[in-house]
């Protein structure tokens, strides 16, 4: 499973784990892949604690971070984002939470070690992302920076280059991938429609080979709908140098997902996800629940642009999680949720992916043999 990007990054296998959970990051890097910590939702101070822990546990293995620096959004120059949220949106969210009897958060909620922050501090603005990146660049094991929603600015690329950190970004369209190449990125992640989190409307099977051709010889990772070695082999057959997986780690014992959504993820089929603007204002795929369905009701005042939608729903989402509401509980996940029906640990998943990949490649190689 060795490709050029393995040599560039000093990893054994090109299996990249996107996760908001530090344990997943460490376990996948230690298993020979590359753990990448999703930083959205962390303050710079919280990220410092996470990265100190990761650096301490990970030994000499590399890791990365992922930020959400959107290309198009309501900018940092807006002094008070909270004040831009319409009252009728807040009232509607409150009415839905009342309808399902979702209690307020306890007074000591944010003091109990919760990773999340409140209001305008949400990590979807350039101002916060820059602080997160500065924090991460201090750690010697940090070798990869990825941006979810656009080409990172030139000065960030320059600083990363000086520190030997490779920079990539997700692309849901060929034109985004070309912009990343023209912007000077080191690699591109082509993420198809079926993936968890923010995702476009073209599937991985169709998007990936087009991105590979459009940005060649830049390395491309395939993302969206990859949870097994067979799927990794398919991505690599289409020209990818590796795979970038998010959903497959959510049902591991290491994962950050709390018990109720995890139970729902384990039971879900590939038909149980939906793309919605509820979480951030941009389309993201997640497990369907009554909370997601409420946003399609005719009384709903509609979605706000990023980052206002995220600020609008942040506390509601924490309350739903804290209440462990069977009806409302959701979690961002891709269609491969239908393949993750048991709680395997990260290391086992990496090893099974490698074995499954080998079997797939051997099976394909046999098709070349003469009768
Ligand atoms: C719970 C969850 C949260 C995600 N959050 C982010 C994020 O903050 N930044 C990002 O670049 N991608 C994010 N993604 C997308 C992943 O990086 C990845 O592209 C995607 O999960 C791949 O598709 P898969 O879910 O089918 O593996 C998220 C995915 C999931 C499942």
List keywords for this structure.
371 residues, alpha/beta, TIM Barrel, three-stranded antiparallel beta sheet, 13 helices, 39% helix, globular, binds flavin mononucleotide
Short structural summary:
Helix content is about 40%, strand content about 15%. By secondary structure, the chain is an alpha/beta fold. The protein has a single domain, classed as Aldolase class I (TIM Barrel), CATH 3.20.20.
Question: What does this entry look like structurally?
Answer:
By secondary structure, this protein is an alpha/beta fold. 39% of the residues lie in helices and 13% in strands. Strand 8, helix 9 and strand 9 (242-245) form a beta-alpha-beta unit. Helix 3 (44-58) runs parallel beside helix 5 (126-136). The longest helix is centred in the last third of the chain and has 21 residues, at 346-366. The radius of gyration is 20 Å and the shape is globular. Mean pLDDT is 93; it is low at 115-121. Residues 18, 38, 40, 66, 68, 146, 148, 170, 191, 194-197, 223-226, 244-248, 332-334, 336 line the site of flavin mononucleotide.
Q: Which helices and strands appear, and what pairs or packs with what?
A:
Layout: H1 4-9, E1 15-19, H2 22-30, E2 34-38, H3 44-58, E3 63-67, H4 87-99, H5 126-136, E4 142-147, H6 154-163, E5 166-171, H7 174-182, E6 187-191, E7 197-198, H8 204-215, E8 220-223, H9 229-237, E9 242-245, H10 259-267, E10 273-276, E11 284-287, H11 290-294, H12 308-323, H13 346-366
Helix pairs in contact: 2-3, 3-5, 4-12, 7-8, 9-13
